[in-house]
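At this stage, I needed to go through a protein sequence along with its fold in token form, as given directly below:
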Amino acid sequence: MYEEKASNYCHCRLCQKAIGAPVAVFTWVPTENFKFSKGQPKRYASSDKGDRLFCGDCGTPVGFDTKGPVIGVTVPTLDNPECFAPQQHIFVSSRQPWFKDNDGLPHLKEGPDSDSI
């Protein structure tokens, strides 16, 4: 399960398409403890896993609502993104072959409940 305050690089195809980049960076927080400071985002049901959240004015992706106990917030959109350094790469089975990293962080083939590779 996604842990509170856990941040990660997500390489899944859904994130790649939603963010328009080879990797997205999310931090996961309890849904009940999270509020947007200004307005409410628009929603797009991108999969059976949840809704993509984005700014209705500019289109910036701002999160992923699991419709469960946690919400994923795109780290670069936070006021202090430096406080949420990723701790792992997830869904590397979908990583673009030309995208390389050498940060030494754990790589999970699929999601947080999967085995490291």
